[in-house]
Amino acid sequence: MIKKPTVSTKKLWLLLTVSAVTLIVFRITDDFNIKWFAVTIWAASLIIFVFLHSKLLFGLKNGIIFFIVSMLTAGAFEYAGTSNLIPGCRYHYNSIIMGPLLFGKIPYGVLITWFMFLYLTTVMAILIYKKWLKNIKHYHLVIPLLSGAMMVSWDLIMDPVTTKCMKGWVWIDKGLYYGIPTFNFIGWFVISSLSSYFFVIYMKRKKGWKPNMGGGEETLYNITVVPYLFELLSECFDGLTCNLLLAVALASITMGFFIILAIYPKKLND
Length: 270
Known about the structure:
The chain is mainly alpha-helical. 70% of the residues lie in helices and 4% in strands.
């Protein structure tokens, strides 16, 4: 059986407050050392949030399994892209900006951040499913597809900001959207959806689990919208400073759409 929330969400809100403050510092400062300190605290507070949240909602063991699955799938995709193994989607990272590289190719921070937002979007997808799509029986397919779409929506602003404003990585293959190849977004959708699918299928096969929201769980689902919203606002701030108006507009529309679906006060009935 899946564990029900047994402790207050105060710790979760505290961690979100720390992550929000450090994210603001990261965005507004020009000092490289302060930026690194701020983004480190941001990542640490958010990863703790994710694991604490997973402990309350799914059980810590299941959250760790999700972490392992996402690391393997994302790591394989990243390794292929940085090793020039994917035609039309080749790139390399700037280690000065992005930090230490796994296998000399993949920033550890990229993998951790990818998992954090995959977890958040998967939980948000469950929330959206229960509010709007619960009549569709195959939730094990709907939820991963929603999560994949939300991840791509995030990448519509994150990738241009990181490549154009921060110079975090360089695309060898070029595309029409800020020089980013279209296959990148296809890959994001496929890999994100698959990772989420593996987790949902794993949870589905565990006796007693289905995407319910009884026993106070609704609060835990709702709280995951907050860091997704923070990320939209902070990325758009950088996007505006770099004059990435199209990226800001697309992210605001797409990420905003999912946020509205998630927070809309629609009654949940299991």
